Amino acid sequence: MSVAGLKKQFHKATQKVSEKVGGAEGTKLDDDFKEMDIEQVSQLSALVQAQLEYHKQAVQILQQVTVRLEERIRQASSQPRREYQPKPRMSLEFPTGDSTQPNGGPSHTGTPKPSGVQMDQPCCRALYDFEPENEGELGFKEGDIITLTNQIDENWYEGMLHGHSGFFPINYVEILVALPH
């Protein structure tokens, strides 16, 4: 049974006893009941005071955090902004027209191809650094030329770089020579 239910029963019993016994006994029982209420109310008051203190401390902590954040914002806004400057991209441009080498082949005026990679086989250039997170992935740095061996699905290639083979995301590379279909 709940405390409130017990109180009601106690109060009813007190009234009945008070009616039967008379004024002197009834007054004492009423005083006991009031004492019990005072004790519960004082405990409730202590709980409310403890909660009030807790929330005051929470407000102080939030105010301190706000001051720190505002200070960081002031520091950041007082420093000059660094503008984003993209890294220059290497390009392989083959001129059209009569530009030929003495041996009759087209002259190459773009960035020379890295040694060890033949441009007559499927390959791609890394646009960004890729750090492998899972076993079987191939890590590379921006600008690396990767030999393509297979397209796993619409999001992943398989390739070779520096004697290592592995998978890497398609959106990290630019295709130079496509895989045969």
Q: Layout of SSEs?
A:
Layout: H1 3-21, H2 23-78, E1 123-126, E2 145-151, E3 156-161, E4 164-169, E5 173-177
Antiparallel strand pairs: 1-2, 1-5, 2-3, 3-4
Helix pairs in contact: 1-2
Overview of the molecule:
The protein is an alpha+beta fold. Helix content is 41%, strand content 15%. The protein has two helices and five strands, in the order ααβββββ. It has helices at residues 3-21, 23-78; strands at residues 123-126, 145-151, 156-161, 164-169, 173-177. The protein has a five-stranded antiparallel beta sheet, with no helix packed on it. α1 (3-21) packs antiparallel against α2 (23-78). The longest helix has 56 residues, at 23-78. The chain is elongated, with a radius of gyration of 41 Å. Residues 108-115 have low confidence and may be disordered.
Give the structure's gist in a few sentences.
With 181 residues, the protein is of the alpha+beta class. Helix 1 packs antiparallel against helix 2. One of its GO terms (molecular function) is lipid binding.
Characteristics:
SH3 type barrels, elongated, 5 strands, alpha+beta, 181 residues, five-stranded antiparallel β-sheet
Give helix % range.
40-55%
Order of helices and strands: HHEEEEE
Q: Radius of gyration, Cα only, in angstroms?
A: 41 Å
Please give the order of strands in the largest beta sheet.
Answer: 4-3-2-1-5
Name the beta content range: 15-25%
- Secondary-structure class: alpha+beta
Task: List low-pLDDT spans.
Answer: 108-115
Spatial separation of the terminal alpha carbons = 79 Å
What do the pLDDT scores average to? 78
Largest sheet: 5 strands, antiparallel
Large-scale geometry = elongated
Strand segment tally: 5
The total tally of domains equals 2
Number of helices: 2
